[in-house]
Structure formats: C-alpha cells, structure tokens
Amino acid sequence: MTTAVSPGAAHTAAPANSRGRVIVASLIGTSIEFYDFYAYATAASLVFPALFFPNQDGTTALLASFAAFGVAFVARPLGSVLFGHFGDRVGRKTTLVASLLTMGIATVVIGVIPAATNPGWAVLAPVVLVLCRFCQGLGLGGEWSGAALLATENAPEGKRAIWGTFPQLGAPIGFILANLVFIGLSSSLTAEQFQSWGWRVPFLASAVLVIIGLWVRLKLIETPAFQKVVEADAVAKVPVARVFRTSWRKIVSGTFIMLATYALFYLMTTFTLNYGIAATDASPAGLGYEKIDFLWMLIVGVVFFGIFTLVSGPLAERYGRRAHLLVVTAAIAVFGLLFVPLFASGTIGVMTLLILGFTLMGLTFGPMAAMLPELFPANVRYTGSAVAYNLSSILGAAVAPFVAVWLWDAADSPVLVGVYLAAMAAITFVALLFERETKDVDFTDDIGS
User: Transmembrane stretches, by residue range (predicted)?
Assistant: First the structure.
C-alpha cells in the first residue's frame, strides 16, 4: 500500500462494477462498521461504567465511559489522513479492505478484555479498552469516505445522491442489528450473566460479519474516477498536504455542514438511551423505562432513520443538496427547542421525540455521501471528504454525550441539551449558506492537478 497503481494497470482494469455489487459492497461495509460502533455505544451506557470504572461514583463512571467512547472520535481524523492517503494513492478498494480489518480486529479484542475488578487489571483493562476504541476510530475514519466514493464514483449521471444513500443506510442497519443482539441477550440471560459475559457476544460475533464484508469487497474493481486519476498521472504524492493547500476552505465548510447531523445522532442514541432507562447508579436521572423496552423504542425510531435516509436521495437530487439540507437543518433547530417538552411528556412524547429526531437524522445524513465528496477533486477526494467528515465527528459527536450529561446535571433538566442541539444546527445552517450547490459539479472528470 505504498505505491500508486500504474497507468497501465488502471487502463487494463476497465470499470465493471455492477449496480448490485456496488450497493452490496458499500452497504455491507458500513453496516458492519456501524454495528461494531453501536455495540460499544450501547455497552458504554449499560455495562462499561461498572466493569471498567468500578471505583468511581455513578456519574463519574458514566462520564469516564463516555470519555473512552469519545477517544474513537479523536482517532477518526487520524484515520481519515492515514486511510485517505492510501485511498487517493493506491485506490478505494484496497483501502476499504484495510479499514474494515482495523476496526473489526479492535472490536473482537474488546470482547475479550477482562473486567477491571479482576486481579492485575484495575489499570490495564481501561487502558486496553481505550486503545481498542482508538483503533475502532482509526478504522471508521477511513471507512465512511471510501464507502461513499465507492457508491458515488460508480453512480450514473444524475443519480449520485440516490446511490450515495446506500452506504448511509448502513448506519440504521448497524444500529438495529447491534441492539437486537443486545435485546436478545438481555432477554435470555440473567442480569448477572449479561454483566459477566453476555455483553461480550456482540463484539465476538462481529468477526463473522467482518469476514463476509471482506469477501464482498475483495470482488470489487477500482472506481472509474480513480482510474482516470491514474491514467492522467495526477495521483497526489502526499494527498493530505495537497488537499489542505488547495481545498482547505472546503474542509472547513464540510466540517461545519456535518455538525448538526453528528450532534443530533449521538444525542438521539447514546444520550436518550442513558436517560431513558430506569434510574441507576450510572444513570441517576433516568426516566424509568426498562432497558429492553427503551431499546425497542429506539429501534422503532431508527426504522424511520432508515426510511428517510432513502427518501433523502431523490429529494437532494431533485432540489439540490444545499437547498434540501437548509430546510432540514432549520427543522433540526426547531426540534432542539422542542426537546424538553417532548422528553418530559410521557411515553407518547418520548416516542414522538424519537420518531421526529430519527426522521430528521435520515433526511440530513442521507445526502452527505454525495455532498461532501462533491466538494473535492478526485485525486484528493478520499482524503478531503474523510477529513471533513471526521473533524466534524469531534466537534459534533465526541463531545455531545459528555456535554449533554454535564448540561443535564448542571440544570437538573434536559432544557440546555435541546438548546445545545439548536445551536449546532444554527452553525450548520450558516455553513450551508456560504457553500455553493454541488449537484452539477463535474464529478468524474474533475481529477485535480
């Protein structure tokens, strides 16, 4: 993975990825990646505070667990640079295989870490957990952009936003799959069994999913856009240096365009799960729902996430990415102001909050696989879109659960959490106002210099 593909090799490997192969390869990869990621997010709320931070009080242990959760977001920009370098030099296919292996191996290792209560593991267990989270973030930092390019660089003219929704659909699929596994385990095991070993099963089971993902991706050939870059001898020697030199404004723009999406999603999943379940030492302000009941409520909401991810593609193709996202982002800001009355008005209000929030999530997340790559020329497209996407993960997602816990604790109410989401949406709205429409950019032939 240290040298670019030769022009001759690119010329020989004519584009032949079928629509079905592209859809399956981009969808299954992100589904696996997000399954791994959400398995940790669920465990971070439900079991990790007691397992890995047993000597802390409830709130401190929860914050420590979320801090470990946030380590992956810090690693993601590093992963975007690392895998972006190879994605823009060697090609999308090889890099996607490497990113999948990186996150998959780290996830399996999490499943075998002894608890901190075991002799000799009081310090080592949290350290290993954080290292694995770092590797998960590193892999995910290269995964999303490669999957997005796999879909959009193979898409027919006028279909990029539609094809781009297929890797995005991996997010709700991965979430539902991970939580169904947790529900099944929680239903069939006692609380002691789940706390002792049951939580490990989703992490160990991911090995099977990774093997399937590798098998599908190894059958791909390179995308037409990257083949043109190679044929034109326009491969960037140091993609990260070139993209910051030639497209730094687009990186800033893309980072803030994703901000509301990230803040919304991680408040709707990690935060709502933590405060939806019955009050415990790790969740002192819980609303009183049983864990399994609230996971089912989340799954219902995420179904709307998946549906409206698919709906967003045709809308963004018809009206343009910018116009579509401006409307959705304004709706997210209003939703933030409704967060408190919905979250505090019983089961109907909570379900309304989950359905509305995840519907907005699908509408804002779906077009991003087209819009962010469209900001960059093909020879730095992997690096540029990955860096913007993952820098936004720090600003919008890594701190979101942590800030939400702190705001709730400070105000003894979710009121400031909703204001926080509205503020993130306002920043994204301004970023969109300053960005041009990308629907009609010269995507395949703009290879860069």
Answer: 61-83, 95-115, 121-140, 161-185, 197-218, 251-274, 294-311, 323-344, 350-375, 387-408, 414-434
